[in-house]
Amino acid sequence: MLRGFTLTLARDMRLALRRKGDAANVLLFFVIVASLFPLGTGAEPGPLRAIGAGVVWVCALLASLLSLPRLFAADLADGTLEQMLVSAQPLGALVAGKIAAHWLTTGLPLALVAPLLGLQYGLPTDALAVLLASVLLGSPVLSLLGAAGAALTLGVRGAGVLAGILVLPLCVPALVFGAGAVAATLSALDPAPHLSLLGAFLAVSFVLGLWASCAALRVALD
Amino acid sequence: MASVLYTYASPQAFYPLAGRMIPWFAWAAAILALAGLYVGFFVAPTDATQGEAYRIIFLHVPAAWMSMFIYVVMAGWAGLGLVLNTRLSGMMASALAPTGAMFTFLALWSGALWGRPTWGTYWVWDARLTSELILLFLYLGFIALKEAIEDPRRADRASAVLALVGVVNIPIIYFSVQWWNTLHQGASVSFTAAPKMAATMLAGMLLMVFAAWMYSIAVSLARVRAIILERERDAAWVREAIA
User: Core-most of A24, B11, B53, B98, by most CB within 10 Å?
Assistant: First the structure.
């Protein structure tokens, strides 16, 4: 089971490394959208600091959403997905490998860049550290629930928008607790309760997202 | 008992049964709604603090209850269809979704109209309001996914997975007023404590709740009949039924 996980992870990482542009574009989109907000809302330091964490989180959600179509589409097109379904390895382990690779190529870079964007919004150092922690903890949620959305809309027309409609409402708790942790730090409160709730939501999404992805893939290739 | 259930799991057998049940539920809904509205507008007293504005609860509370309850029933049918692979279950889930979305919208809209005179604002980003809004998005996502997939069996099963994932939101809505300090008040009615409102207000509200139940059943049955006809249009019995 572990072997299925590591092999899929290694394969997807190798594919991602050979097409570096895909991951880089997601990151670029994240930075551009986050830079648009101060231009639209006005660059007053006070309001910017207040909305900073929320903006970074929403941009991370949207950027991660844009990367979803390539999660399963190429594997569906070349038949790899069918091989995964009939393989002796449990489907859950293989899908978990793909989700882990997606997080390493999308969620992790987003988390590492998030403090830089926080700096643009004038967040103080302790808030930047909490922002990094919250996106590190929350971005796997986006990969897990996103995988479920990608699997549900596999091969459906208008899959990109539809996946957004399905996934974004489910990701709301991650956004609320993630941005809430930074807001708590800004008002000199302990961010730990928000981060704990975010961790709990990650555990729930691991179970739900993995199950839903596998069930949806089985339905799609039935 | 079990054999009766199996018989009516077939769309062909369920179609005439649903047709016979609809008038009963529709009439019950009409009578209960008329009684509830009469009690609500002419018998129940004016509220001491909220004035006449409180009378929106006769619509708002049934709508909010039904919005959550229908989602659970819909997810139940969807899950049943996923496990037992019965065709009618997916059709029932499809038939319930628009009614549930309508009640969710009605709960939000009537709440906004009540909030303006009472809280001084149409909308606040309070935990219960927000989670009810997310419930509306979940219903619309369920309907959108169903519409987008051409093959009805795949549509049923894919949207069943979505409905089961989304059911996590229901306890969040229900308990939001206890977990967070919200502007929305806690429950005024419970099974364990004496009601905190006048008996006639409670009677009017409960009549409207039962009316909403009967309405939901009648409308879902009518809709499931339409879905059965649409999906089974190539079957011989459908041609006989509509001839």
Answer: B11
pTM of the model: 0.90
**Residue pair A146/A165 in contact by the 8 Å Cβ criterion:** no
Interchain CB contact of A220 with B (< 8 Å)? yes
What is the reported pLDDT for B130? 86
Closest approach of chain B CAs to the CA of A150, in angstroms? 11
For residue A200 the two structure tokens come to: 């709990």
Contact B148 A157 (CB under 8 A): yes
Query: So what's the pLDDT on residue B171?
Result: 81
Letter string b/e over residues B34-55, b meaning 16 or more CB atoms within 10 A of that residue's CB: ebbbebbeeebeeeeeeeebbb
A59: nearest Cα among A11, A117, A9, A10: A117
**CB of A57 within 8 A of CB of A178?**
yes
Give residue A203's pLDDT: 95
Minimum distance, in Å, between the CA of residue B201 and any CA atom of chain A: 35
C-alpha–C-alpha distance, residues A177 and A83, integer Å: 38
3-state secondary structure of B86: coil
Contact B141 A166 (CB under 8 A): yes
Cβ of A165 and B134 within 8 Å? no
A156 in Cβ contact with A113 (< 8 Å): no
**Which stretches in chain B have pLDDT values below 50?**
none
A158 close to B (CB below 8 A): yes
Query: For the segment A69-90, what is each residue's pLDDT rounded down to a tens digit?
Result: 889 988 999 988 999 999 888 9
Query: Any chain B CB within 8 A of the CB of A200?
Result: no
B148 to A156: CB separation less than 8 angstroms, yes or no: yes
pLDDT at B115: 86
At residue B45, the 3 state secondary structure works out as coil
| ipTM tops 0.85 | yes
Put simply, the answer to whether B154 touches A165 (Cβ < 8 Å) is: no
Residues B39, B200: contact at Cβ < 8 Å?
A: yes
